[in-house]
Model the fold of this input.
Amino acid sequence: MPQKLNEFSNGGFIEFDSGCFDGWCVFVTIPGNDRFAPTDARYFTRLKELGEKFGPQKIYDDFVVIYNRTSKFADLKVFELIAVLSRFYNSDAEEMELWLNVIYAGMIAEENKENAILKKRIKRLGVHQVLIEGLSPEKASVYSKGKKWKELDEIMKQKGF
Done:
């Protein structure tokens, strides 16, 4: 059963629903468009492109503000903070609000997944790789596949998270 998390200023919304693996799949509905489940590669690509316009460090820093406030539970105050942070992006504010909502929801999902050891840190690794290290969104989106959690944990610790 879908669980609505937040509604956007354009009337669209973000929710959790059952996906391929569990009930923590993030779905977005934008008015006039179909409902879709954003992939890591899709939002990494847009964050990279927006980083070229606004600076990758600025976007990463805004992401970390949200990351630091993420728990197992959706928090209305964090969604409000995302709306405030997104205003900086001027004509891209609506899109930035969308992607920050998606990443926030994705981190909540990671925090709730059974047997997930790395939790939200796995999203931070991908965002860091794309925005700070310059790894392609496609490579970052599959980087962890096939790797042991201890190897990824060590990589993240070396990066400070």
About this structure: Helices lie at 40-54, 56-67, 76-86, 93-112, 121-131, 137-142, 149-158. The first helix runs from residue 40 to 54.
